[in-house]
Amino acid sequence: MNADLEPSREGLVTPRRTEPVETGELRGNVLDLLQLSGMSISSVGPVFSIAAAVGPMIAVGLYGAPIGMWLAFLPFLVSAVTFRHLNRHLPNAGASYGWTFKALGPAFALVQAWMVILAYFFSLMAIIIPAGTYTLSLLAPAEVSNNVLVSLVGSGWAIFAAIPLIWGIVPTARFTAVFLATELVIICLFFALGFFHLAIHGAVVAPSLGWFVPTSSLRFGSLITVAVVGFTIVDGWELDSHAAEEAKHRRTNPGTGGLIGLLAVTAVYVIAFFLFFTLSPIKGLVTHQTDVLAYFSAIVAPAWATKVMLIGILASTASGLWLTHFILNRSLFAMARDQVIPRSLGRVHRRFRTPWLLVLLVTVAEVLVTTVLTNVPNVSAFFSIMLQTAGLFLSIVFVFSNLSALIYFRHVARQSLHHFLLLGVLPVTAVVGMLVLIGGYLVQQTGTTLLTLVILFALTAPFVLQVYLRKVDVLKATRELADDYAHPEDEEAHVGRAGQFQAGGVSGQ
Q1: DSSP secondary-structure letter at 19?
Q2: Domain 26-208+217-469 of CATH type 2.40.40.10
Q3: Which of 249, 253, 266, 465 has the lowest CB atom count within 10 Å?
Q4: Is-contact 311 186, C-beta < 8 A?
Q5: pTM of structure
């Protein structure tokens, strides 16, 4: 065995440390497949995302909204398969960022790092503001339009979400299990009431196969917008990839948990669309696009039961908040370890083994941005922009991830038809599909949304520049491309190296 490599607990081969690692190590070998799957489902926050985004999707796509959801789901499904194989070979807390560095090199990794930060930070913003609104709807309905209170309560949720993240990966998983059970019990109860109402009173609108399968002409432009919003509501299943360094059997469980999570939450969305469309005329759904789940609850249950649904929404919102934050702080931890951002920011708590400083910094940034966004005119317009912006950058992140798989497994894809389809055709399909959606979305944008996107894309330059100003010579960092494919039965596989970027050179060289 190479003298520079040493076996880990699970038989993986990790680079032997040639110098102290300033950031420290995360707690490994903790999360099992059930916990990873539960965290992936909770990260999506199915009840919250139905409440926050399905209404706007219906308002844009009408009965074509589920087709727009499929346009987001199918590239994600392909990506989930790709992620599973990447996790087998490259378990890395940075997931898509780490894979991009390995396969495409440091220049692309820096761009991907900025896309990751934008995607998940805006996803956080799209959760925090509704968290404040739904809490006030439950406890003080008369104050829902009070933007100051919305920002204060939403900020309170952001601070609360930091507690399990700093406390440790085990408390995070336990908190998640409790909140996930709460939201699933409540949404299943209301779905059962919906089917009971349908059986007793019949459908307001007759069910149609065309809701879920394209059987007639559709407005492609509106479906593109629905799909981009769909990226935001379906996203989060990939959390298990970011937990790979903390997982048990990290060459098989990460990726599998995400695939289970994606399929589970998509089933929830299909049921929701079916019940919404059959129990209400489309005009009612569009009118109630901002409170579509409460509107559905009022149809199938007594008025007081709406409070129960709000509890489910808040449980979903809370777990989705800290788990989206989890994805972001683990990505930032990997970036700090590689010195894309200052390494000192990624320091790990000695007892809890969590990147506590990054959790605190992201929480402070959340609170500041929430305070600004909720105290400007037309908050709902900004929320819509955040949803779409997060979806756009998430899709770019997944384009880079699938491109990384194509490059990383390029030799293996030629070895058999099975590998060609799995590691060649599927990633290409995901890349092409997402690029079509990205291009179709961008050409439709004008005004504030377009200006926001231009500014955020332009900020890529100073983000890359800060690396060079800190004299971190990323261009000399070596690429570690795989010429062979690590199957589960293999004895060895390479994992991410801590400290790849070094001032004036590359660590370990």
Answers
A1: S
A2: no
A3: 465
A4: yes
A5: 0.83
